Amino acid sequence: MDTRQAYNTWASQYDTNANKTRDLEGTALRASLAHLSFDRCLEIGCGTGKNTQWLTERARQITAVDLSEEMLAKAREKIPSGGVQFRQADITAGWAFRDGLYDLVSFSLVLEHIQDLGHIFREAASSLLPGGYVYVGELHPFKQYTGTKARFDTEEGRQVVECFIHHISDFTGAARQHGLTLIGIDEYFDEVEGQEPAGEQHSIPRILTLLWRKP
User: Fold this and answer.
1) What are the backbone dihedrals phi and psi of residue 29, each rounded to the nearest 5 degrees, phi first?
2) Distance CA 20, CA 60 (A)
3) What CA–CA distance (Å, rounded) separates 172 from 210?
4) Model-level pTM?
5) Helix, strand or coil for residue 28?
6) Residue 99 lies in a domain
7) Total structural domains in the chain?
């Protein structure tokens, strides 16, 4: 199923489905950005607004972008704030949805659906003020290697969203080519009740986060 159609279909149940990847990425984003100061944010992949509300507490102005109009409709219901401008757009095309330059460009569970990372990082770097940040939170490639993909169930059966595998070096290489400096990389594991703390387990990490800064 193509990405836009899939997320339009998924929107009605996205917030209520059990989804470890969605929830853990939200935790990872907050941990990654809590120590940063940013006034203007370009949020790519806002979905139903799972991270947008938290970002409104940190940023004065947010441009929240998603490919799915149905996901955006859910986000608008939750977040009536005048400080958020919602935009429906395909980020594989030119970024005409930009409103000036930003202190932060964030990507949440988006880039697994994008084949050409070079274009994305070129546009992201061009969207930043000097000293601005790019945050990426993705399903860890180690999980992808095992066959894990974005998927959900409907009355017609299980729907699997089109995905591409990107190695960690694919992310870092694409960002480096466009002048971004890597300043942070973290991995987040599922917490399993009755076992050792997640970071001490010899299990496969679920979420990868990367943080870059524009000189």
Assistant:
1) -60, -45
2) 30
3) 8
4) 0.92
5) helix
6) yes
7) 1
